[in-house]
Amino acid sequence: MSEKKLKFNSKTIHGGQKPDLAYGAVIPPIYQTSTYAQTTPGGHKGYAYSRSANPTRTALEQSLASIENGNYGLAFASGLAAIDAVIKLLNPGDEVLSTNDLYGGSYRLFKQIFEKYGIKFQFVDMQNANQLEKCINDSTKLIWVETPTNPMMNIIDIKAIVHLAKRHHLLVAVDNTFATPYLQLPLDLGVDIVMHSATKYLGGHSDVVVGALIINDSKLADQLYFIQNASGAVCGPMDSFLTLRGIKTLHVRMQRHCENGKAIATYLANHPKIEKVYWPGFEDHPNHEVAKRQMNDFGGMISFIPKGSSFEDAIKIIEKLKIFTLAESLGGVESLAGHPASMTHASIPKEERKKIGVLDSLIRLSVGIEDEADLIADLEQAIG
Asked: Which tens digits make up the pLDDT trace of 141-184?
C-alpha cells in the first residue's frame, strides 16, 4: 500500500520509515557520529558531517513529514530553534503578525532578539480573522499562529487566516504543538510552515528537547534547510531516536490525553470553587465550532481560575498537588501543573499578560494519561 494512503495511526509507526540498509534493523539505529568516511572529496554515501545530516535525524525528519502530510521535515535542537529558523527567512524592516496569546518563549524571541535586528512584530487577537486584515501593511511578510493558544486555549480559524494571507501573498506558519497532527493538520488547510516543540506531545515522555518544521514547498524547504545547516541548531542522534520512538505511540497517547482532558475539564467546570475553565471542547467556548471543524478532538491542555483567588491562592493549590507535578513543559505521559504568570509566560510584561487574560491566578494543566479518577481526586484535595 502507498504510504500516502496509510491512516494516521499507521503513519506514526511506518511513515517515512524503512529497515536500515546496513543490517535490516527495524528501528533506525542511533548513528552517534560526527563525520563519515569519504572515498574521494565529496564521495560519500549521502552523509558528510552530522550538522548537515545524520541518518537518525533523517529518519525522524521523514516521520515528521509523514504524520503532518508534508513533503519535507526538519528537526532542530528545540522548538525555539525551529522558530528562530523561520524568522531568519525575513529581512530588516519586515513585519510579522503574531497571535497575541502565545508561548512566552516565542514572545521573548520575537521581542528581545529579533526586534533589535529590525524585524517588527504586531501581536493581534486572531480569534476573528476578519479583523486581521486592517493590521496588514506593505511590510507584512508572515502570519504566526498558535491554535489552541498557550495558555488561554483560544482557537484561531486556520482556513480563514490562509485565505487572507493568500490575498496578500503572505507566509503562514502554525505552531501545532498543543494540537499535534493527531488532532489538526495545518498543511492540509493551506498553511506554509508547521512548527512543533517536539519536546512536548511528539516526544511524549519528558526526556528530550527537540523542535520541528514541516513544509510542502521545495523552495521554502531549501531555504530553511540552508538556515538549519548554516546556523547549526540541530538535534543530536540520541534526541532524534527518542523523539522518533515517542511518535510511534502518539496516536494512543493522544486518545487518552483527550479522554482525560474532557473528564478533568468537566470536573473543574462543575466545581463550586472554580470561576472559569478554558478548554475548547466546551460548547460555550469562543470558536468552539471552528475547533470542531479543524480538529479531531479537543486535547489535554486546560487552564482555569479558582474563584476569588489571588496569586498566593493559586500557588497554594499547585503546591498541594501530588499526582500533577509542578513543572515547566507539557505533553508528557505524566500530568503537569504550571503557573503561567511566573513560569512559562514570565518573560511577557505583566500589563501585556493581563490584556490577554493571563492573570496571576491562572493555573495551566497538562493532563497526562494516568487514571482519570486519580487525577480528579488529586485536584479535589488540592482545591479543597
From this structure: 999 999 999 999 999 999 999 999 999 999 999 999 999 999 99
Rounded to 10 deg, the angle between the 311-320 and 372-383 helix axes is 140
Rounded to an integer, what distance in angstroms lies between the CA atom of residue 196 and that of residue 89? 17
Q: List the one residue out of 341, 334, 346 whose CA is nearest residue 300.
A: 334
305, 175 in Cβ contact below 8 A? no
With cell 490577554, the residue in question is 356
CA dist 246 and 98 (Å) reads 30
The x, y and z cell numbers of residue 3, run together, are 504510504
d(CA 339, CA 343): 6
Which fold would CATH assign to domain 250-383?
Answer: Aspartate Aminotransferase, domain 1 (3.90.1150)
Q: What residue segments make up the domains of the chain, in order of their start? A: 3-247, 250-383
Catalytic residue among 11, 120, 200, 364: 200
> Is 201 an annotated catalytic residue?
no
Q: What is the pLDDT of residue 22?
A: 87
Establish whether 371 is a catalytic residue.
no
Which residue out of 84, 157, 175, 239 is catalytically annotated? 175
Tell me which of 51, 159, 248, 316 is the catalytic residue: 51
Write out pLDDT tens, residues 301-311.
999 999 987 89
Is 200 a catalytic site residue? yes
Q: What is the Cα gyration radius of the chain?
A: 21
188 is catalytic: no
Give start and end residues of each alpha helix (H) in 232-302.
Answer: 237-247, 250-269, 288-294
Which candidate in 47, 103, 201, 278 is catalytic?
Answer: 103
* Contacting residues for 178 by C-beta, under 8 A, at least 6 apart: 146, 147, 148, 149, 150, 200, 201, 299, 301, 330
For 362, half-sphere exposure in the C-beta direction (CA atoms, 13 angstrom radius) is 24
Q: Residue 122 and residue 127: Cα distance in Å, rounded?
A: 15
At the top level of CATH, which class does the domain 3-247 belong to? Answer: alpha beta
Lowest mean pLDDT among 122-131, 160-169, 239-248, 266-275: 122-131
